[in-house]
Amino acid sequence: MLQKTLIVVLTIISTSMFSQVGINTTTPSPASVLDINSSADGTNYGGFMIPRVTLIQRNAIPVTAADDGLMVFLQEGNTRCVQIYNGIDLQWENVYCMPVNQLPVANNVSFSGSLVQGEILTANFVYSDAEGDLPGSHIFAWYRADDALGTNQTLLQTGTSSTFELTATELNYYISVEITPVAQTGASPGIPVLSSYQGPVNAPSAGGVFISEIADPDNNASARFIELYNGSSNPIDVSNWQILIYFNNNNTPGGTYTFPFGTVISGNSTYIIAQDNTEFTNVYGIAPDVALAIFNSNGDDNFELRDNTGTLIDVYGVPGNDQTGTCGEFEDGRALRITTIIQGNSVWDESEWIVRADSTVGGCTDHANFPQNAPSDFSAGLHPN
Question: pTM for the whole thing?
Answer without folding.
Answer: 0.62
